[in-house]
Amino acid sequence: MKILVCISNVPDTTAKITFTDNETKLNKNGVQFIIGPYDDYALARGVELKEQFGGSLTVLHVGEADADPQIRKALAIGADDAIRINAESLDSYYTAVQIAEVAKQNSYDLILMGRESIDYNSGVVHGLVGEMLDIPSYSPVMKLDIEGSEVTITREIDGGKEILKAPLPLVLGCQEPIAEWKIPNMRGIMTARTKPLNVVEPVSMEALTAPEKYALPAPKGACKMIPASEAETLIRLLQTEAKVL
Amino acid sequence: MSVLIYAELDNGSIKKTSLETIAYGVKVAAATGDHAVVLAIGSAEKRELEKAGHYGASKVLHASEEKLKHENSLAYADTLVQAAQQEGSKVIILSKSGLGDAVAARAAAKMKAGIVSGVTALPEIGETFKVTRSIFTGKAFAVTEIKSDIKILVVRKNAIELDESSVATVQAVVEQFAPKLADEAFKATVVNVEKASSELSLTEAAVIVSGGRGMKGPEHWQPLIDFAKALGAATGCSKPVSDLDWRPHHEHIGQTGIKVAPNLYIACGISGAIQHLAGVNGSKCIVVINKDPEAPFFKAADYGIVGDVFEILPRLTEAAKTLK
C-alpha cells in the first residue's frame, strides 16, 4: 500500500489571530504553528494502515521552510519520507494542482488529508485533487477500513452518516474519530532526523484568486446580564429585542 | 448568461439553507444583469421545486434520475458542469456543506474555475469580482478577488438576511435535466445510510440549545431537551460531553465538530473554550447560562444568566410555552 498524507501548517487552535502590513499578512509573531488537527487524524490513520499492510507513507506539504518542524514531527509520528513543495500556497486550487502533480508521478493507492485546514476552512482541496486525478474523493471520513482492494468508508452526511464501499485509489478528507492522534516517541524523533525531506519546486500556474485584505470581526457588544431571579424575561427579550424567536 | 445555484434537497424538498442560497444567487444575478437558474439533483415533487420562484429564481433544472438518488459528488459535479454549460453560467453558487464543498471542488477542477468557500456576504461586483469569506474558523475575514472567467462561490448560512415577508408567490418553471453521466462516477456503492430523521438537523436549525459539562451527566439532559422542544430547537453539545459519550458525536459543536450558524444559540453549562466558540461564532444571537460568572463564554454572548441551569431551564421552558 502506497499512502500519501497531505498536511497543512496552521496556527494553533487557541492562537490569537492578527494581521500586519496594512492588514494584508497574517501576523506570525508569537503564533505557535501545528500540523492541522484534521490532517493529524489523517496521518494517524495512515500510520495505522501502513503498520497493518506494509508499504510506504509519504507526507506532503505545500508551503515554505518554516513548516519543516511540523513536517519532521509527521516523520517522527511514522511517515517514511516527506516532500515539501517550496511555494507559498496561494489558494485551494493552487495547492491542489501541486498535490496532484506529485500524485501523478507516484501513483498512490490512498491520498489522505484533513477535511479542511483550520486556517482557510475551505474543505475543497480533496475534491479538487480527486477530480484532477480523475479518482473518487470523499469527505468527511470518520472511519476507514481496507480489505483486499475494497475500502469501507463511513462518512458524515447532513444529520447522519453514510457507509460506502469503493475501490482504490481514493482521496479522502478525514476527521475524528478515524484514529487517535499520535504523539511521537523518542525513537521516532531520533529517526525522523535522518528521514528524507525532499524540497521540490512548484509547477507554475497563475492563481485564479487573489487575496486582497484581511479583517477582524467587529468587537462584540457587551453581554446583557439578566438576574437569575428574573430568568423568564429572557424569553421576552429574545422575542421583542433580539427578534430571534 | 445566468447565475447557476445548486439547491440541495432533503426528503423531496429544497433545504432551508439552500432557499437562502437561492435568494443570495438571485441578488448576485440582479447585480450582474443575468437571470438566476436553480439546479436540483435527486427526487422531488415539481410543486416543491417551483418554490424556488418564491425566492426569485426563474427556472429550475431538475436532474431526477434514479441513480442520482444518493449524494454523489462525482456525478453531481458532472451534472452541475453540464447545467452550467447549457445555461452559459459564469457564476455558480452552492451552500456551504460537506456536499456543497465536494461538488463545488470537483466542478471547479473540471472548469478551471476560481473557487472560494465560506463566503459570508454578497460579492462586490465592479471591474473586479470580490468576495468576503470567513477564515481562521470565524476569527477573521478575508476579501478575495476571483480572477477566473467562471467563478464558484460556496456560501455560508446567514450570508444574507432572508426576509420571509418579502417572499413572492411566483413559481419557477421546472425543466427536466438529463445529464450524460460517466460510469466512473458510480464506482462506489452505498451500503447504508443512517439518518436521525426525527431530529432537527443542527446545520438547518434556527434555534439550538446546547449543553456542556455543567449538565453534570447524560441522565440530567431532560430539562435541556424539554426547553429545546418548547422552542422548536435542535440540541447540541460541547466536545467534552461528546467525548464522555453523554451525547452522540453528531451533536458535537465546535472547531473539530459541527459548525453552526443559527439565529439563536443557547449554551447551558458550557464554559466557552475557544474551540467551542469557533463552532458557534456564526450565530446571530448567543445566550449563555452558567453558574460561573467568570465563564469566558459570557464575553462572546449577547445575553447571559448567572445561575443554576437545573433551576433556570424548567422556568425558561414554562416561559417559552406561553410564546405560541
UniProtKB/TrEMBL annotation, chain A:
Query: RNA-binding among the record's keywords?
Result: no
- Tell me the SUPFAM superfamilies matching this sequence: Adenine nucleotide alpha hydrolases-like
The record places domain Electron transfer flavoprotein alpha/beta-subunit N-terminal at 23-209
CDD domains named in the record: ETF_beta (cd01714)
What Pfam families has UniProt attached to this entry? ETF (PF01012)
What Gene3D superfamilies does the database record attribute to this sequence? HUPs
Q: Source organism's superkingdom?
A: Bacteria
| Keyword Electron transport annotated | yes
Q: Which UniProt keywords apply?
A: Electron transport, Transport
InterPro entries in UniProt:
ETF_a/b_N (IPR014730), ETF_b (IPR012255), ETF_beta_N (IPR033948), Rossmann-like_a/b/a_fold (IPR014729)
Family membership: Belongs to the ETF beta-subunit/FixA family.
Q: Could you identify this protein by its name?
A: Electron transfer flavoprotein subunit beta
Q: State the species of origin.
A: Dyadobacter arcticus
TrEMBL record, chain B:
Q: Which UniProt keywords apply?
A: Electron transport, Transport
Entries under InterPro entries matching the protein: DHS-like_NAD/FAD-binding_dom, ETF_a/b_N, ETF_a/FixB, ETF_asu_C, Rossmann-like_a/b/a_fold
Q: Which residues form the Electron transfer flavoprotein alpha/beta-subunit N-terminal domain?
A: 3-193
UniProt superkingdom: Bacteria
Asked if the Swiss-Prot or TrEMBL record annotates the protein with the keyword Electron transport, the reply is yes
Its family remark reads: Belongs to the ETF alpha-subunit/FixB family.
Name of the molecule in the record: Electron transfer flavoprotein alpha subunit
Species of provenance: Dyadobacter arcticus
